[in-house]
Amino acid sequence: MRSLLGFATALAVCLHYVSAFQTPLMLRPHDISPSLSRMQAELGSQLCKGSSVYLSNYLGSRDHTERWSTAAEGDVMLVVAPTCEKDVATVVKLTNQIGLPFLAINRGHGSVSALGTIRNGVLIKLNNLVSVDIAPDGKSAVLGGGVYTDLLLRRLAKENKVAATGGCGCVGIVGPGLGGGFGFYQGYFGLMADGFIEMDVVTADGSEITVSESSNPDLFWAMRGAGQNFGIVTKFRYKIFDYPNGQNVFHATYHFFEDRLEVLFQHLNSLIDNGSLPKKVNAYVVLRSEPHISTRPVFVYHFYYFGSAEQASPYVQRILDLSPIFISNASFPYKEVSHRSFQASVGDPICAAGISTKTRFPIGLKTYNISTNREIYNLFEDMITTTPALATSFVQFEAFPMQAVKAVDPASTAYAHREDDILVAFSTQYLLSAANVAAANKYGRKARQLFIEGARPMRFNAYSNYANGDETLEQIYGHESWRLEKLRRLKRKWDPNGSFRFFNPITGY
Q1: Cis peptide before 136 (omega within 30 of 0)
Q2: Count of Cβ atoms closer than 10 Å to residue 47 Cβ
Q3: What's the rounded Cα separation, in Å, for the pair 172 and 143?
Q4: CB 141 within 8 Å of CB 236
Q5: Quick one: DSSP state of residue 289?
Q6: Could you give the CA distance from residue 236 to residue 247 in angstroms, rounded to a whole number?
Q7: Phi-psi region of 192 (alpha: psi -120 to 50; beta: other; left: phi over 0)
Q8: pLDDT tens digit sequence for 411-433
Q9: Measured in Å, how far apart are the chain's first and last C-alpha atoms?
Q10: How far is CA 345 from CA 44, 80, 105, 181, in A?
C-alpha cells in the first residue's frame, strides 16, 4: 500500500502540467496495471499545456468514455484529450511501447460493432482540435481533426461559404469523410471524402506525415473511403465553396399513414429518376413510431430545397397531391439545418451519448422496390409491437443528389459505391441487453435480406459509416478484386500489426 500511495503522489506531480482530474483522484489497486501507471507518468511530462488525461474507472470519468451508441464504448482504461496535434503522435508511440491498443475518435458517433471490441485500451479524443483557418483565396480551409458540422457551417457562413458535411450537426467532419460521407450538398460538391485536399496523419507507428495527391498518394487514395484503417487525421485542408443558391434552405415535413406507402414511393422513384434527383433537392424519409399521431408506424418525409419556398412550390405541390396527414414548413439559414429540420445539433436529444445502443443494417439501392418497402413496413410494425424495447427504432430512406458524386472517377478513391442512388438502413436502438441485441439482430438481418432480394440483380453494397459489422469486406469496400488487393497491400505497408482495427477492419493481409 505504501508503494501505491507513493505512486499516487508521483502521479499528481506528473499531471500538474495537464488539466486532468476534475474530481478527486481515487486509486484502487485493481485499477492500476504496470503499463497504465507507466503511461500516466510519462504522459504527464510530454503533453501540451491544457491536454487532459482521465482514468476511465474513476468517479466522474464516465463523461469522457460515453458514446452515442453504448455498445461502441468497449473497454477503455485511459482517456487522453490532446490540445495540440503532436500529442496524438506522442500517445500512439507510448501505447506502442507499452503494448496497449488505442482508438481515436472525434465526436464519438460511430456505431459499427468493431468499435466495441477494444479491450484495456487508450481512447484519444480529438474534440479539442477545432481550429478553422480559411485560405485567402476562399477555396479551402485548414481544419483541426476535431471540427464538427455545426461549428464548421457557422464559421463558414460568416464568409458566405459552405462545404460538404453530413446532416447531423453534432457529428465530426473527419470520421464520416474517411468512410465516404453523404450530405445535403453532395449534388454540388461530391462526398465529404471528395473534399479532402491534404491531411496531416499520425500512422500506426506514431509517425507524422502529410498525405495528398502529391505526398503518399496511395495512402491518400485509401484514406478516402477506408481511412479508419490507416491513420489518425489531426489536421486537414478541405474544399469550401460559395453558396450555390444563397444561404437559405426551404424545409418541409410531411407525415403519411401506411395506406399512402405505395403512392409515396412511386413519387420518390419518379423524383429520384435513376440518380437524376435535382441538385437543389433532398428527399429523406423515416419510418418510425409516433404514438401521438397514430397507433401504427408512420412515414415522415423531409423535403429540402436550396432556394425559396416559391421556387420549391412545383415540388411541394406534387407532395401535397399525395395527401399527407400533417404538414410543417419553414425557410432558414443552412447553418441551422440540423437543428431546425430534425433536432440533430449539439445539445439536441438525438445527439446525446450514453443513452442507448444503436445498430444499423444498411444497403445501397438504385430505386425503391415498392413491394419490398411494404414488407419492410410490416416487419418494422411487428418488431415494435412484439418487442417494445425497440420501439424507438426507425428505418431510413435517404436520397441525395448524385451529380458531383458520380462525376468523380470511382477508381480514384477507396470509396466504392458511387453507383448507388439511394441509401436505406434498418436502424435499431435500445437499452443494451442480451435479449434486445438478439431481437435487433433478428429483425435487422431480416430487413436487410428483404432489401437485398428486392434489389436483385444489384449487388449488396453496405455504406461503411452505417455498417453493422457482419458484412463482408467486399460488401463494404467494393466487389472489384483489385480494390481489396490494393487495400491489403497498403495495410501491410502502413499498419502491419493491425493497430487500426476498430472500424470495419481490413483483414487477410
Answers
A1: no
A2: 24
A3: 11
A4: no
A5: -
A6: 25
A7: alpha
A8: 999 999 999 999 999 999 999 99
A9: 46
A10: 34, 25, 18, 17
Burial status of residue 82 (CB atoms within 10 A of its CB: 0-12, 13-18, 19 or more) = buried
User: pLDDT tens for residues 168-186?
Assistant: 999 999 999 999 999 999 9
CA distance 364 to 367: 9
Q: Is 49 exposed, middle or buried (0-12, 13-18, 19+ CB in 10 A)?
A: exposed
Residue 323, phi then psi, degrees to nearest 5: 65, 60
pTM of the model: 0.92
Q: Residue 498: left if φ>0, alpha if ψ -120 to 50, beta else—which one?
A: left
Question: Pairing state of beta strands 161-162 and 196-202?
Answer: unpaired
C-alpha separations of 86 from 107, 206, 235 in Å: 20, 10, 11
H or E segment and range at residue 320: helix 309-320
- Count Cβ atoms within 10 A of the Cβ of residue 238 and give its class: 0-12 exposed, 13-18 middle, 19 or more buried: buried
Q: Are 120 and 32 in contact (CB under 8 A)?
A: no
For 82-159, where are the alpha helices, taking DSSP H only?
Answer: 85-98, 149-157
Phi, psi of 301 (to 5 degrees): -100, 115
pLDDT for the residue 42:
76
Q: Are 281 and 268 in contact (CB under 8 A)?
A: no
- C-alpha grid cell for residue 254? 410531411
**Strand residue runs (E) in 306-459:** 326-333, 357-365, 394-399, 422-430
- Percent of residues in the chain assigned helix, strand, coil, to nearest 5: 40, 20, 40
Distance from chain centroid for Cα 310: 34
Size of the chain in residues? 509
